[in-house]
Design a protein that fits this description.
- By secondary structure, the chain is of the alpha/beta class.
- The chain folds into 3 domains: about 280 residues, TIM Barrel (Alpha-Beta Barrel), CATH 3.20.20.70; about 40 residues, H-NS DNA Binding Protein; about 130 residues, 2-Layer Sandwich (Double Stranded RNA Binding Domain).
- A hairpin with a 4-residue loop joins strand 15 and strand 16.
- The strands form 4 sheets. It has an 8-stranded parallel beta barrel with strand order 1-2-3-4-5-6-7-8, surrounded by 8 helices. Strands 11-12-13 form a 3-stranded antiparallel sheet, with helices on one face.
- The two termini are about 50 Å apart.
């Protein structure tokens, strides 16, 4: 096995700069936990001095027990007019109390003059001074050389001098950034070799990293080439999210490092989580999955017909560059009922359900799953709904209540006041009919309150359950307001959280489906304890 490569994820900071990519604080915490399980070495949580969301994230992340990943706070070198010890940005980085701090500085003389409006020597001073101030107070200190490749092309001696000052300040890793994403692969080698020669002359051991943007569609290629030239840390984002055209895509880079280049990294131990991690980020960002994405896309290992299908059935290597299971994906023969069998069996084992490959119910579950997926259901981020589906197919799911009807009314009684929303439901628990109503902050909240009001006297533990997230996605824009929607709900109790899903042309019907699944899952969990 080759040398060890550090994987540095910046989805929570650089990724959130992408258009239409938004995460709540709780979303960021959940993604942090997912990336830790994947084996990511560094997770950049954000810029603590920039907004309240980042500040709250760093407060919450201290309560997490991470198995491997180290959280990094991100910021800039000090303002030229401030002493390092008095600079608000640097102090905010220290207040975040993270094991790693990453700061960026200017490598391009154009930016020093036109953006910072200071002299070139002044920029060298603030780079060294900022890092020297942080060095004794943090475990890992990383320096991002912003616009390094453009700066090197314009003024190589000055760009190298900024790296030298970062080394003098105590940076353990220097990250070469292609911030504008304009560098092409053939340009990398001479620049990286010159950097290595320069650093060798300083006689101080330091790691090199690469941070590539995708404006020329070369971020993944540039990152992999940089590693082949001796770079030891790769920065990027899950699914390549980032400003403008995005960042280097870690879901493509990581499997290439492991399976193609034979290099070591912590993610190697958990690489089969890559597919689920990719989809988890999409779901929490409420964005569609890009089906044609390499390695983790739905179509990455899909075979439609003719010669391909015949060959793949005999030997998958004929039309697949790696085995899909290695990254947690699965092969799809689009005209066959065999796709997804391994995934269903894996989930059955995970949930303690007795289901074998020869069981006729397996085909029944797969067929139902296919039909539901055709209707728009997706179970990434909604595994509670999928477990309930499997339990119903196996005859293991109790009917805790029987739903009869519901009605939701919005009354806009004054234009300067919010509308009043009331939900009325009718259901049966055993032989008892329950007919009740509840007000809420919107129709979904009213429905949630009404069903909980109806069921709590039968199942008191529902009081400890709460709805913590609600997302709606329009599945097709072709039919305007008549389009189907998918509703994803996250619920939690004192022990854990779970996701459920509903699909309908009616947003309230889709929401009801997800709510009912959420409550059924909670009731099923309590049954397991008995």
């Amino acid at each position: 096995m080759g040398r060890h490569i550090e994987i540095y994820d910046t989805t929570l900071r650089d990724g959130t700069q992408a258009e239409n990519f938004n995460l709540s604080v709780d979303d960021k915490v959940r993604i942090t936990q997912s990336l830790d399980k994947l084996g990511i070495d560094f997770i950049e949580g954000g810029w603590p001095g920039s907004n309240p969301v980042s500040v709250e994230y760093f407060q919450k992340v201290h309560g997490l027990h991470l198995r491997h990943a180290k959280i990094a706070a991100f910021g800039s070198t000090r303002h030229f007019k401030n002493k390092a010890s008095k600079d608000a940005n640097l102090l905010a980085l220290l207040d975040a109390r993270t094991p790693a701090i990453t700061i960026f500085g200017k490598s391009w003389d154009v930016h020093v003059r036109d953006a910072l409006h200071i002299e070139l020597e002044d920029n060298l001073l603030i780079i060294e001074d900022s890092l020297a101030f942080l060095r004794p107070q943090v475990e890992h200190l990383i320096y991002d050389a912003e616009h390094f490749f453009d700066g090197f092309k314009d003024n190589p001696e000055y760009a190298l001098a900024t790296l030298g000052k970062a080394v003098d300040g105590g940076a353990e890793t220097l990250v070469l950034c292609d911030t504008n994403g304009g560098t092409l692969p053939h340009e990398l080698q001479p620049i990286i070799e010159r950097v290595k020669q320069y650093l060798a002359g300083l006689e101080k051991k330091v790691k090199l990293g690469i941070h590539a943007h995708n404006d020329s569609e070369t971020a993944v290629a540039n990152s992999l080439l940089a590693v082949s030239y001796g770079i030891d840390q790769v920065q990027g984002t899950i699914n390549g999210y980032g400003e403008r055209c995005g960042n280097a895509n870690l879901t493509s880079i990581i499997p290439a490092l492991i399976f193609k280049m034979g290099l070591a990294c912590e993610v190697r131990k958990h690489i089969d989580r890559l597919y689920s991690a990719s989809r988890f980020v999409n779901e929490l960002a409420n964005l569609p999955h890009y089906r044609y994405q390499p390695y983790v896309g739905e179509s990455a290992f899909a075979h439609k017909g003719g010669v391909h299908v015949s060959a793949v059935k005999r030997n998958p290597l004929t039309y697949e560059h790696i085995e899909p299971e290695k990254v947690g994906n699965f092969r799809r023969i689009l005209i066959s009922d065999q796709s997804g069998r391994a995934n269903v069996l894996h989930k059955a084992k995970q949930w303690g359900l007795k289901l074998s490959a020869s069981d006729p119910l397996l085909s029944s579950i797969i067929n139902e799953l296919k039909e539901l997926e055709n209707q728009g259901y997706q179970y990434e981020g909604a595994e509670a709904s999928f477990e309930l589906l499997m339990r119903r197919a196996l005859g293991l799911q109790r009917n805790y209540f029987k739903f009869e009807s519901f009605r939701v009314m919005n009354h806009k009684y004054r234009m300067d006041k919010p509308p009043l929303t009331e939900a009325t439901i009718r259901l049966f628990v055993g032989g008892d009919e329950v007919h009740t109503a509840s007000l809420g902050d919107g129709p979904v909240n009213a429905l949630d309150c009404a069903i909980r009001k109806a069921l709590t006297r039968f199942y008191p533990f529902l009081q400890e359950m709460e709805l913590v997230d609600y997302k709606v996605r329009v599945l097709s824009g072709e039919h305007g307001t008549e389009a189907k929607v998918r509703v994803l709900i996250e619920s939690r109790d004192k022990v854990c959280s779970w996701g459920t899903v509903g699909v309908s042309v009616n947003i309230l019907e889709a929401s009801w489906q997800a709510l009912v699944d959420s409550i059924n899952y909670k009731l099923m969990k309590e049954d397991k304890k008995k």
